[in-house]
Prior knowledge:
This protein is mainly α. The chain is built from two helices and three strands, in the order E-E-E-H-H. A hairpin with a 5-residue loop joins strand 1 and strand 2 (about 20). The radius of gyration is 29 Å and the shape is flat. It starts with 8 loop residues before the first strand and ends with a helix.
Amino acid sequence: xxxxxxxxxxxxxxxxxxxxxxxxxGGNCVALDLPEPLIPAPQKREGAPRPRPAGAANSAAxxxxxxxxxxxxxxxxxxxxxxxRQILTDELNAEMQKLGELxxxxxxxxxxxxxxxxxxxxxxxxxxxxxxxxxRSEQNVEALKREISNIR
Length: 152
């Protein structure tokens, strides 16, 4: 049984980022003294098929599930989809209510000043925070609508 071995280097760039590689890249690389590997390298057999790269598509099977993979009954899947739709609809309603409250408080960019905002910078900070919260809430509403439309 053979064991795969290679020299490993730890290289550090000017910003201090470390990279571990099998090639020495410049003068800031240090060879690491690692213990013997515990996992032996696979034996190469004559006539054995070559392993496929991780991202390669399996043309024979396509996107079909393996035969041992559990199948879900159509009625069960419809029930799951209905539950998912209900949960997402509830989340959408809550997010739309939150968005309405934020817009009322924002008051077209002129919310009422509170007593603790004697400093105008604090008021502006709160206005900017409200504006950001409104934008984030609008993005959440759009994302939830997309999710609901993707349900079968």
